[in-house]
Design brief:
- The chain is 42% helix and 16% strand.
- The chain contains 13 helices and ten strands.
- The strands form two sheets. A six-stranded mixed sheet has the order 1-2-10-7-8-9, sandwiched between helices. A four-stranded parallel sheet has the order 5-4-3-6.
- Helix 1 packs across helix 7.
- The two termini are 38 Å apart.
Length: 345
């Protein structure tokens, strides 16, 4: 490992305290499912942006600007001053660039809009037009780049001719700091849940975490292992069309995979984040894959329980519903926790 892992939930919590749109998202208990208690962390309207990724992209933009101000001016900038006219004029010289299957780009674009920076987002051809519209509404320039997420990422990595800042939610050798900030933002979700479980003295026995490049899953696993009073079994869930973390786990090193396009668009990533894999290979208990049909069934189940999400957002539940087929041991009276990561598109 050629980087120092540093995730501190107190940092994003401190910043969010001054953000008027921040509030804890709900934990919803759904009636017992085959003698299993099901608890869902509902991220479908996080900060009005419709996805957990709001916590990562907005925080990373703000934190970068605070760090850059200190580097350029030799003094600390209080987070409250990011909206001062003087600071906003200074922030306008920065352009953030990213690739996205939708939600990460929206979070980065919102961060740029809040603090008067600029933003360009590369999205692959299959990304729904609804995401592109949200991005342009937030003031971002949208560029259709390639047929896959990996191709749009390659385009974003090359989009730096004028000193643009690549703000990816994935990491690779030599590129760690900004994706680590994104992941640090996500840890807020685990801390919110910890507070509720501690208050009720009722903890999940199993946590199912869906993964694309793995940033959310790794952030949750890190924070759970670090700070939760009772430790659950952690199961990482991927599309069977993109099992990059499962295959990486099998061989003991990060590797890319190939496969068809999955309807779980936000999880259809063929190469893991290096930081995420390094965390999950140590802290996760199981890696499983679900089919597009499994994920659609799970999304429909949540819709019937008045929680609207997508197959990507319901992938964790898909593993629970398919536990027998996947050979996942869930004894009767277990409490299973999943995260509905996004609203319906």
């Amino acid at each position: 490992m050629d980087y120092k892992l540093s995730l501190n939930v107190r940092c994003p919590l401190g910043l969010l305290e001054v953000c008027p749109s921040y509030k804890q998202t709900p934990l919803v208990e759904i009636s017992p499912l085959n003698n299993i208690r099901l608890v869902v962390k509902d991220e479908t309207n996080r900060m009005g942006l419709g996805s957990f990724k709001a916590l990562g992209g907005i925080y990373a933009v703000a934190k970068f600007l605070l760090e850059q101000w200190q580097e350029e001016n030799g003094c600390e900038l209080l987070v409250q001053r990011l909206i001062d006219p003087e600071v906003r004029r200074w922030s306008n010289k920065f352009t953030f660039v990213c690739a996205s299957a939708g939600n990460h780009g929206i979070a980065v674009a919102k961060g740029a809009e809040l603090f008067n920076a600029n933003c360009r987002v590369h999205i692959a051809q299959p990304v729904p037009a609804s995401f592109a519209k949200k991005l342009t509404t937030l003031g971002a320039m949208v560029i259709r780049s390639g047929k896959t997420y990996e191709e749009s990422m390659a385009a974003a990595m090359n989009d730096n001719s004028k000193g643009e800042i690549l703000l990816a939610d994935s990491s690779w050798p030599g590129y760690y700091h900004l994706p680590m900030l994104v992941m640090e933002g996500y840890t807020v979700i685990a801390e919110e849940m910890r507070q509720v479980f501690l208050l009720k003295d009722s903890w999940p026995t199993h946590v199912f975490l869906q993964a694309g490049v793995g940033g959310l899953a790794a952030s949750m696993a890190f924070e759970i292992r670090k700070n939760w009073k009772q430790q659950p079994r952690i199961i990482v869930v991927e599309p069977d069309a993109a099992p990059c973390l499962l295959e990486s786990h099998k061989i003991g090193r990060a590797t890319s995979v190939s496969g068809p396009i999955s309807s779980m668009g936000r999880l259809d990533c063929k190469e893991p984040s290096l930081i995420a894999f390094d965390i999950l290979k140590e802290l996760a208990d199981e890696f499983v894959c679900v089919s597009d049909d499994d994920a659609l069934t799970a999304a429909n189940f949540l819709a019937q329980n008045k929680l609207a999400t997508t197959p990507s957002g319901a992938a964790g539940l898909a593993a629970i519903l398919s536990n027998a087929k996947l050979d996942i041991s869930i004894p009767d009276n277990s409490t299973c926790l999943v995260i509905a990561t996004e609203g319906s598109v």
